[in-house]
Amino acid sequence: MKVINLGETNSLLNNIVAQMRDKVIQKDRMRFRRNLERLGEIFAYEISKTLDYSIKDVVTPLGIAKVPTLDTQIVAATILRAGLPLHQGIINFFDDAQNAFVAAYRKYDKGDSFHINIEYASTPDLDGKTLILADTMLATGASLEIAYKRLCEEGEPAYTHLVCPVSSADAVEHLKKSMGKNVTLWVAAIDEELTSHSYIVPGLGDAGDLAYGDKI
Fold it and tell me: Cα–Cα distance between 70 and 94 in angstroms, integer?
């Protein structure tokens, strides 16, 4: 698995991440959602540079322009609920993409242990297509790995791009061992610390709650 950390290069992406981390700014839920959406757009643009294109003739009012346009079939997927704004940003750019959704959450067992429970998955056929699977936070990597495997029950992607703005270093190492070679992980920041409850530090908090409000 290849890892690309866009946060290592100075760009406005880091301003967006800083706003999302800021405990005062993030109280504005609409701004938090919009910042996630903007990150999705940036990731989509960067991913688009890696895809397949061919020259097409485009008829203009004055003639014919030869333009390289996208040939790759995209399936954009996300994990509910926190991933929805990020997903929206991705499909703002990949406007012809098919879509997939997975409902996955932590179900806590005794002590601090938990397992990932999937209640719902909806996806088109993935065979031969490029899958972009997005989730806001990558703590242990378990949710993303299980969601990916569940989606792949409906076909084998030709290539997969994982989009996770904030990741722990542990999760990156876990995915390197569990994912195949036809996978790229795109992140905006990698944080070194993961608590005993599997929360990323400094992280940004619970992205789902910040985007949509507290849950019971």
Answer: 10
The pLDDT, as a whole number, for residue 215 is: 81
If one counts the domains in the chain, the total is 1
pLDDT digits (tens, 9 = 90+) for 56-112: 999 999 999 999 999 999 999 999 889 999 999 999 999 999 999 999 766 666 666
Helix (H, G, I), strand (E, B) or coil at 30: helix
- The number of CA neighbours under 13 Å toward the Cβ of 36 is 28
The runs of H, that is alpha helices, within 61-189 are 84-93, 142-151, 169-178
Q: What is the pLDDT of residue 7?
A: 98
58 lies in some domain: no
* Domain assignment present for 36: yes
The range of the structural domain enclosing residue 141 comes to 2-51+71-212
* Residue 151 near residue 131 (C-beta atoms within 8 A): yes
Domain for residue 111, yes or no? yes
Which pLDDT tens digit goes with each residue over 154-208? 899 999 999 999 999 999 999 999 998 999 999 999 999 888 777 899 999 999 9
Helix (H, G, I), strand (E, B) or coil at 135: coil
**HEC letters along 157-207:** CCEEEEECCEEEHHHHHHHHHHCCCCEEEEECEEECEECCCCCEECCCCCH
CATH code at position 47: 3.40.50.2020
